[in-house]
C-alpha cells in the first residue's frame, strides 16, 4: 500500500485541487468526488483535500466558483430542454465552457504572477538585508582587527614591563 503524503501543500497542488473542484462544480458533480479524484492524483487522502479546499483554497477562488455554478446551471437548463433544441444549444455551451476555461486559466496565471512578484520582492528585501548585515560584519571585522592589534601591542609592552621589573628585583637582591 503506497504511503499517503502528509507534507506541506505546494502552489501547484493548490492549483490542481482548484481545477479539479471547479470542474466537478461545472459538471454538477459533488465536491466529495472532486476531493477523491484530487487525492488519488496527489497521493493524499480525500479528507486532506477537502480540508485544504475548505480552509484555504476556496477563499481564493470565489469568483471562479460563482462562474462554475452559473455554468452548471446553464448545463442543467440545456439538458432539460427538448431533444431537438438540445443539439442546437450544444454550440453555445461549448463556447461558454471554453470561455470559462480560458477565464479560469487567465485568473490562475494572474494569481501565480502576483504571487511570483510578491516572492521576488521578498527575495529582494532579504538580499538587501543580507547585504546590510554583510557590511556591518565587515565593519566589525575591521574594528576587531584594530582592537586585536592594540591588544597584542599592550601584551608586548606588559611583558617588557614585567621583564624590566624582574631584572630590577634581581639587581636589588644581588645588592642586599
Q: Between the first and last Cα atoms, what is the distance in angstroms?
A: 97 Å
Kindly provide the radius of gyration, computed on alpha-carbon positions and rounded to a whole number of angstroms: 36 Å
Percent strand equals under 5%
Global shape:
rod-shaped
Question: Could you tell me the mean pLDDT?
Answer: 86
Q: Can you tell me the residue ranges where pLDDT is under 50 for at least 5 consecutive residues?
A: none
Number of helices: 5
Structural class label: mainly alpha
Q: Name the helix and strand elements from N-terminus to C-terminus, one letter apiece.
A: HHHHH
Portion of residues within helices = over 70%
Number of beta strands: 0
The profile of the biggest β sheet is: none
Structural account:
With 176 residues, the chain is an all-alpha fold. The protein has a domain at 11-132. Helix content is 89%, strand content 0%. It is built from five helices and no strands. α1 runs parallel beside α4 and α2 (31-42) packs across α3 (46-60). The chain is rod-shaped, with a radius of gyration of 36 Å. The mean pLDDT is 86.
